[in-house]
Specification:
single chain; about 290 residues; alpha/beta; eight-stranded mixed sheet; three-stranded antiparallel sheet; 11 strands; binds S-adenosylmethionine; binds zinc ion
Amino acid sequence: MTSNHQHVSIWACPVCQAPLKLFGQQAKETSSENGWCCKNNHRFDIAKEGYTNLLLAHQKSSSNPGDTKAMITSRRAFLSAGHYQPLAEKLTNLLSQYLDNNASVLDSGCGEGYYLQQLHQQRSDLHLFGIDISRDAVKLASRQLREGGFAVASSFNLPVLTSSVDALFRVFSPGDPLEVTRVLNPSGILLVVSPGPRHLFALKELIYTKAQEHDLPDRQENFVLLDEQQVSYQLEIGDKESVKQLLAMTPFYWKGDRAAKAKLDELDRLSTEVEFIMRVYRPINPLQS
Ligand SMILES: C[S@@+](CC[C@H](N)C(=O)[O-])C[C@H]1O[C@@H](n2cnc3c(N)ncnc32)[C@H](O)[C@@H]1O
Ligand SMILES: [Zn+2]
């Protein structure tokens, strides 16, 4: 972590919303004294991987919410193999157009942190932050990108200061428009990546007798659409392990019936379209909403 990065924080106390400040030695060293503290003395430890748990017990729907460790390790392996690299490049380029030097960027529902890692490789000047409700996801993300700031948190209740973020993005993750509007600074942007109609269509055809295309994602209300881009290509997977990893990341695999699942488990190659829709927005009334 460079000194530049140490002095920027977006975190707000999840109990009283006051700014959180570091206490103890520098964050991300191993001292158990390290943590975040607000003026009302609410304290949150920094884990040895560098992240902080800012999700309060009553904000959890289960003891271990979000994606499971198995889903996350599959996603890490699949994404690191570069299968979604064209999306990562487009996302990075698009965000970069809107971001001045040293801007603060939050990945909401960051998973194991692939897109933040890719962004860091192109734009090491940025202050990068990620939250996810899955502790296992955040642990992995934080371990990989030591320069970033990571917290276990819900995107519906962001422990993030009002007007502190220049860009918030989310890739296939849920979010709350009012929270986004609150945390963005008045000229900040929201970038949403959603599946396009043909996303993983060949895979769906293997599961369902009559596969349906996804509906086009709805536009965000109370935001101005600044840009829309599509990324689509034919994904060729030639090994069984990668097919398994993709399946493990895919909700309809878990929902599919047992016979369909057994058929998929036998696949040792897959050729399928992938399609992503990327939309960039700006809130209409940044501070009043
Ligand atoms: C499909 S995964 C996408 C992860 C990552 N954006 C990526 O594309 O690699 C959805 C992620 O959203 C997280 N998630 C689900 N509900 C959430 C919530 N309420 N707040 C924050 N994260 C949430 C899950 O734990 C999971 O990591
Ligand atoms: Zn507090």
